[in-house]
Amino acid sequence: MSLIVRQANTHELEACADLYERVVRATFTWLDVGDPRGKFLKEAGEEEVFVAVDGGRLVGLAAFYRPETYLHSLYVEPSAHGRGVGTALLDHVQSHSETPLSLKVQALNAPARRFYDRRGFLEVEEGQDPDGSRWIRMRR
């Protein structure tokens, strides 16, 4: 694997939105996810988006909201799971932050909770969105 992690170029945001939508729809089967692509593109205007590229192919993305040191999203193509892409993105985002990251993860998303737990994140708060979905805030 020849993984490169870097800030996304503006022309890559459409491909990032496509990846985001694919992974969100495949992962959050218990939620009505609405328009994930449109949501991503709207929020990308306020966030720093980083990409993981392997052999010229987009395999992951992370969106960082700097004012709150908040990792808003981290998504990896299922075919790239277990290859260090998520960890590389997480480490890259952390290297661009002066303080520890925080994030929210869906309570039912056990794989993501385990991923963040193994990388030193602690569960610090629980809450619920207006649609009834439960989330957990984690902080490193």
Overview of the structural elements:
This protein is an alpha+beta fold and 140 residues long. The protein has a single domain (3-139), classed as 3-Layer(aba) Sandwich (Aminopeptidase), CATH 3.40.630.30. Helix content is 31%, strand content 33%. It is built from 4 helices and 7 strands. It has helices spanning 13-27, 36-44, 85-95, 110-118; strands at 3-7, 48-54, 57-65, 70-76, 102-106, 122-128, 134-139. Strand 3 (57-65) and strand 4 form a beta hairpin. The longest helix is centred in the N-terminal third of the chain and has 15 residues, at 13-27. The chain is globular. The protein starts with a strand and ends with a strand. The model has no long low-confidence stretch (mean pLDDT 93).
Q: How many structural units, i.e. domains?
A: 1
Q: Biggest β-sheet: count, sense, barrel?
A: 4 strands, antiparallel
Point out poorly predicted stretches. Answer: none
Task: From the 3D structure, determine the CATH topology.
Answer: Aminopeptidase
CATH superfamily: Gcn5-related N-acetyltransferase (GNAT)
What's the end-to-end separation, in Å? Answer: 28 Å
* Order of the strands making up the biggest sheet: 1-2-3-4
Quantity of strands, as a count: 7
Q: Any idea of the CATH class?
A: Alpha Beta
Strand content: 25-35%
Show the helix and strand layout:
Blueprint: E1 3-7, H1 13-27, H2 36-44, E2 48-54, E3 57-65, E4 70-76, H3 85-95, E5 102-106, H4 110-118, E6 122-128, E7 134-139
Antiparallel strand pairs: 1-2, 2-3, 3-4, 5-7, 6-7
Helix pairs in contact: 1-2
